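Exercise 7. Predict the joint structure of the components listed below.
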Amino acid sequence: DTGVSQDPRHKITKRGQNVTFRCDPISEHNRLYWYRQTLGQGPEFLTYFQNEAQLEKSRLLSDRFSAERPKGSFSTLEIQRTEQGDSAMYLCASSFRTSYNEQFFGPGTRLTVL
Amino acid sequence: SQQGEEDPQALSIQEGENATMNCSYKTSINNLQWYRQNSGRGLVHLILIRSNEREKHSGRLRVTLDTSKKSSSLLITASRAADTASYFCATSNPGANNLFFGTGTRLTVIP
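Solution:
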C-alpha cells in the first residue's frame, strides 16, 4: 500500500491554458474523490467516482472542468481555459466501499494561474 | 460548501501541554473524521468516530462526539513540535458520498 499519489505536485500556468492532473488511488479502493482547497479553507467536494462511473458532481465543477476514471483505477481532472480563480490545491482521495467512507488523501496538486 | 466550524481558528501552546480543538456541525451524520494537514501538504487521516460512539482514543489523541449538541472535540495530549499543523473535522452525512469539512484549527506547538 503506497498511498494515494498525485501528479504533478505543482503546476503554474497562464490564464486560458488547459491543465490536467492525475490521481492514483490506493489499489484496492474502488471509490475516488476530487476536492478543491483554497487558502485558509477546508477542502470542498468536486466529484466522486465509484469504479469507472462518475456518480456525483458538485456545483463547483463548472463546464470547464472534466474528470475521468477510464478503467476504474487512476483518474484525471482537466481544467480548460483556466482562470485566476482556479488557483487552489486540488486534492484526490480514495476509499473502500464498506469503510464507513473513511477517505485517504493524496499530497495534492497546487495550481497557480497567472 | 462547508459543513461545520472549528474552534478556535488558531491555537498556540507550549510543547508538553494538551491541545483541545472543537468542531460544530449542522446536520445529522454517519460519522465524523479528523484530519491533520501540514502546510502546503495533503491531509492525513487521524481518527474516525461513528455517530453511535461517544469517545475514541488513538495514541495521544482523544475524540469525543456529542450528537445532541452536534459537536466534537479533539484532544492531543503531551503535544510535540511535530504536531504543528492545521486540523480539520469532516462529517460523513446520510445520503452523501463526499465529506464535508470545517474551516480548520491552526495549531502551533512551541518547542
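Discussion. The radius of gyration of chain A is 13 Å.
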